[in-house]
Amino acid sequence: MDNSIIERTIEIKQKSIENLIQNETLALIVENFYAADLCDSLYIKLQKDKNSEIYTHETIEDNKLVLQNYGVNRIGLPFNSTYNTSDAELINAYYREAQVARERLRQHCYPAFTPIDKLRLILDEVFIPGASVAHFQNKKMLTGIARISSESLSYLSEIQPHFDALPLKYAEFDKQLAANIYLNTPEDGGELELWNSLDLTPLTQVPKNWREKLPPSIKIKPKKGDLIIFNCRKPHAICAFKGKERITIQVFIGYKEGMPLMLWN
Ligand SMILES: [Fe+2]
Predict the structure, then answer these.
(1) SS3 of residue 155 by DSSP
(2) N or C: which end of the chain has fewer CB within 10 A?
(3) Contact between residue 141 and residue 246 where contact means Cβ atoms under 8 Å apart
């Protein structure tokens, strides 16, 4: 196992983002990115939030889009729920909800920054040419989804890896990264498992028993308040865990040469 491709820091710099984009590193860990007391107070607010729903992940099976349940609840409607739908109301609901959900997260964190707002501002400040809320269909996207996983179904996220890649019809990024801020982490398990393979393209159909065909993985054990950014077009999984809920705030980051980083969910 090669841990040298995991970069640890306490401060995001342009070089760290470039390392991810250029495949020099597989993941960037920013320790204590969000203060522990802010993590705790946001966790309490999210537990009381009535907008929690099942989070599904899209895969391609027999050339059809299939939404998989990995035992994760989420607060915030993800853009992947609108893929391949002809239901205009669902698409409208996504855009209508985007700013509402962003504001709701701000209310939960008030008077502190949300972890996603903090990340977006820092990326804008350190990365040339900046960072911005994405707008794929001339409308602003959601930024910041809370994902809540419980012990009982946590094995579902471990069985097989998956990858995340925005369909090219929305935007043609050179790289897609995922950023997770960990508000609560289980003591036993819950590692982020990464494989240093080639980037996958949006329509890649992954083999059955993919895990068995991949090289050895690298596991990262996040701590409360850590931010982890990784290339999510590569296979990844979340290990089963025991104990308290695992709660993260997540956002995707798209990179295209010469363009600002684009954030969305
Ligand atoms: Fe993922």
Answers:
(1) helix
(2) N
(3) no
Higher pLDDT, 202 or 223: 223
Q: How far is the CA of 166 from the centre of ligand 1 (A)?
A: 11
Q: Does the structure show a pLDDT above 80 at 3?
A: no
Ion ligand 1 contact residues with beta carbon within 5 A: 164
Residues forming beta bridges with residue 249, ordered by sequence position? 146, 181
The alpha carbon of 236 and the centre of ligand 1 are apart by a number of angstroms equal to 6
The predicted structure's pLDDT at residue 50: 83
Q: Give the dihedral of Cα atoms 50, 54, 57, 59; nearest 10 deg.
A: -150
Query: What's the 122 CA to ligand 1 centre distance in angstroms?
Result: 23
| Residue 34 CA, ligand 1 centroid: distance in Å | 21
Q: How far is the CA of 253 from the centre of ligand 1 (A)?
A: 12
Q: Cα of 100 to ligand 1 centre, how many Å?
A: 24
* Mean pLDDT of the residues in the chain: 93
Which of 238, 132, 131 shows the shortest CA–CA distance to 182? Answer: 238
Q: What is the Rg, in whole angstroms, of the alpha carbon atoms belonging to the chain?
A: 17
Distance 162 CA to ligand 1 centre (A): 6
Quote the tokens at residue 16.
């760290």
Q: Summarize pLDDT for 156-196 with one digit per residue, the tens.
A: 899 999 999 999 999 999 999 999 999 999 999 999 999 99
**Annotated domain spans of the chain:** 3-264
Give the pTM: 0.93
